[in-house]
Amino acid sequence: MNYIKEIFLGKPVDYMHGMFARYGRGTFEGPLLTVKNGPSIKAEGSVHYANILGQVIAESTQQEFSVSGAIHAKREIKVPLKTGKETKKGDIHSVEVKDNMHSDGLKMVYGDYRDAYVLLELSAGKWRLKCKKKPPKPGGSLDAKFCSATLDKTALDEVMEEILFDVRDRNFREAEIRHEIVIEELVGPPELKKDPAKFRTQAKRRGRISRRVTVDGRKTETTQEFSV
Q: How far is CA 89 from CA 17, 75, 93, 119, 224, in A?
């Protein structure tokens, strides 16, 4: 289950903190994705959906993929893939990968690194995922074309379950999902405030996220409070 869905189900878990640590107080443009439903399923969106699209692909088919790209995490990266250049900048570990891997192995990689940026390009038959290799810088404008995917029509069940979890029409032509994140408060122990940098990194974010879904021109909006 992806972190966006978990928030709207009211089930925040520890790893989500890393997804929101980049935000201070204020209002921010959040995850964005467009899904087109035709003979195949095509999706294009912001960095927030790179892991989610990869996980959906891995869960939807049983085959070997050509894999390349990079993983960025706030911990040492150990994956069952052939790795290339490894770097560490501040507290961010980065590693380039290039290998072949079965979808079962990809499920493990995406599952083990849910708190990281798994920016992989996947290719097998009709299945494709493309991602930029480096995550966007904090404070930059939202890149609506950071990642894109082509999925076989057999992935529709998984797409509805994980991405369009609040959409009932399986025969839609185009769906757009936008989110707005409002951080109202950073919460942490008083002693942590003596170190502003550590406080920004470790403090919980308390606020709300609005989800705006447009399906073939029909718009709905829901809002969920969170503390992560």
A: 20, 11, 7, 17, 34
